[in-house]
Amino acid sequence: ARWACQKGNAAGSAATAELYPADPDAAFGVEELAAFTSEVLDRSPQSQDADEKKALRQAYAKDGFLRKAMNYVERRLQEMPGPFLLGETASLADYALYGLVDMICKGDFDGVEPAYVDEFPSVKAHHGAVPGSRLFKEYVAAYGKEP
């Protein structure tokens, strides 16, 4: 998706410019948070044994990489100029982060309780802001459901 947005920007697409900024510094911020969400999922402990997986995931959330990553993104969001990474308009990174946090909030991240997000007020506020973004609302209107 990031590659497609970059190509769209090069072609002058206004839609992709909203998702992926042409400014190199802003683009770096988008890359950073988009990579963050991928890394959290990539590092998630796995096991065929359900009890072992639950214990590994609980440790991952309590003091493992998930805790470190969520603390980091909490600090980054506190530095943001608006509800989203780039201010008032949601970027590709905002939607990627929303997807990860939504998994936790809906109880779809095995071994991590939905209340975990309550420990990160800026992350929780960001998650609440994304459904109000223009593209999110357009998606819901077009497909009749949240992504």
From TrEMBL:
Domain GST C-terminal: 23-147
Domain of life, per lineage: Eukaryota
PROSITE patterns membership: GST_CTER (PS50405)
InterPro entries per record: Glutathione-S-Trfase_C-like, Glutathione-S-Trfase_C_sf, GST_C
Official protein name in the record: GST C-terminal domain-containing protein
